[in-house]
Specification:
Helices cover 36% and strands 23% of the residues. It is α/β, with parallel strands linked by helices. It folds into 2 domains: 148 residues, Rossmann fold; 107 residues, Dihydrodipicolinate Reductase, domain 2, CATH 3.30.360.10. GO terms for molecular function: 4-hydroxy-tetrahydrodipicolinate reductase; NAD binding; NADP binding; oxidoreductase activity, acting on CH or CH2 groups, NAD or NADP as acceptor.
Length: 269
Amino acid sequence: MDDKPGIVITGASGRMGRMLLETVAASDDCRLVGALVRPGHDWEGRDVGEAMGGAALGVTATSDALEVFAKAQAVIDFTTPEATVEFAELAAQARAVHVIGTTGLADDDLKKLEAAARHAVVIRDGNMSLGVNLLVNLARKVAAALGEEFDIEITEAHHRHKVDAPSGTALMLGQAAADGRGVTLDEAAVRGRDGHTGARPDGAIGFSSVRGGDIVGEHDVLFAGPGERVILRHVATDRRIFALGALRAALWGQDQAPGQYGMADVLGL
């Protein structure tokens, strides 16, 4: 059993962290070896299974990242940009695969992740689901096939607790559409229209965000042309798809050379 990869979950007490704990603990292909929480959190020092209201899992929640990373072959991380950058350095020191689902990373953060990837495998993506990554590929192909007379609009919806907008997945879709068109997303993107905005610029890639209730994740890519529309859509109904995708990435990364990868690499798309 000890030859199976040991996995640490960061942000273990959060919504995604709990799902990851359950997913890893239930897998026959790996071992749950650590669960990280913030210092002073009421989970600290408790068995994570019991902290979630279930049976003991034999793993005690801790705030000591250095200690748990040292015994890990992979770290799955859906936290905050600041925390993820810190974890990337520690995961690289431990030569552990670092699977990153954190969104909202700034350019400086990405440079630090690039540095960590010189020493270890870093798998980062705005969305870990198979369906979304297929949608990204489709968005790129449709954008390349249709001319600028087709306006591109990306709409995303998430639960009321999500703190960043547009979502990382929406930005992935926008980047794919920009790549298909051969333009840069920074130049083409239009976000959050309000007031007297004037006519829509040619070639713009628009974004809009909805936040409410317990929506897991919905993404639409609209190509609106003269007399017809093409709509690509993905609806997530269970957060477990992201946990399963992240676990798949952590296992895939065990056989890879240091470097930066995405879910398209993991899935062979």
